[in-house]
Every structure is written in C-alpha cells, then in structure tokens.
Amino acid sequence: MLNNNSLVKDTEKRIFGKSSELPIPLKKEQEKIIEKLREYCWQSQDAKKAKKYNLTPCVGLAGCQMDFFYKVFCILIKEENDTFLEKIIVNPEVYSYSYQKTYITTGEGCLSVDVSYEGVVPRHQKIKIRGYDYLEKKYFDAEWSGLISIVAQHEFDHLNGMLYYQRSVSSDKIDPEWIPLGDVKNE
Ligand SMILES: [Zn+2]
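^ thats the input. predicted complex w/ zinc ion below
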C-alpha cells in the first residue's frame, strides 16, 4: 500500500522532469496505476484511512508523484452536501487562461514537498482545458473556474516538472486585484 513516504519528493531530481503523452486506448497496467492515484485521493480524504495508512489529505495528485511520468492527474474536491467533484484527466492541454488571477489564501501545499513555504501562488481564475476524460472515457473540452481551475493548474505544472513554490510570491506582494480563496488541502 502506498503512503505519503512512498511518493516522489522534490528531494529527487526526476520530479522536475517532464511527463510523456499517454497513448489512448490505455493499457491495462496503465489503468491500474491511474486507479492507484485515484484510490490515494479518495483514501486520503477519509480521516480514518488517512491516519491508518499515513496518507496526507490531498485534492489532487499527478502521475509523476507516483513515479508514473505520463500525462495524467486526478482531482478530488469535496463539495457541499458531502458530494465530490472527481476528474481524472489524461493528456491535458490548458489552452486558454483568464487575465483575472486568484490564489489560495493559506498558500498551496504539495505531497511532493515536505517543507512548508511562506507565500501564495497566483493562478488564473479561469482556464480552458481539453484532454481525455478517464472516468467518462471520452475527449472533453471545458472551462473551469475557481478551485478546480487552481488545482488543475497545480497538477498541470507537475506534468511539466514544475512545483508550486517556483511560482509563489510572498504575502506582501499579493495584488489586491487577485481573488482570494479559502483554506484548501494539499495537491
Ligand atoms: Zn503537487
């Protein structure tokens, strides 16, 4: 069983490497790894399981964090009424960004980063994204805004070998035009 310690950390050079395209249809063994990513996100947000298996709660996870350097990431965001917004995107392409920026007021976190950094990460409030939707088993093209947009940009960065602190700015540099968003779990 994977836990927080078995993820690829930023103390390992390869986390800064780029991930490759995943040919569709996916192979069985690739689907198995994607299911592991998915399982990690779900279990990490279940307080009992997270404690039992040493999982740090996360709202998103990229393949490379599990040493799978292919373009795929999971997003799992708890919404009102205990429903979850779940996305698993293969070969994502973010092709349009709003001028409007936003940020998580408490800063971002990452399961590949064990040190906490001061500051916030300015992200685009809206993005247009396309790729292959693993859960729906079809190609999609959508506009995402708010939290899912932030999480998607964080995960998309992972596929290009970039970590959140490479984009962060100190709290006294926050532009009043940026829209603040409340406390969020790790990505
Ligand atoms: Zn991350």
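The beta strands are 60-62, 72-78, 84-97, 101-104, 123-124, 126-133, 138-145, 179-181.
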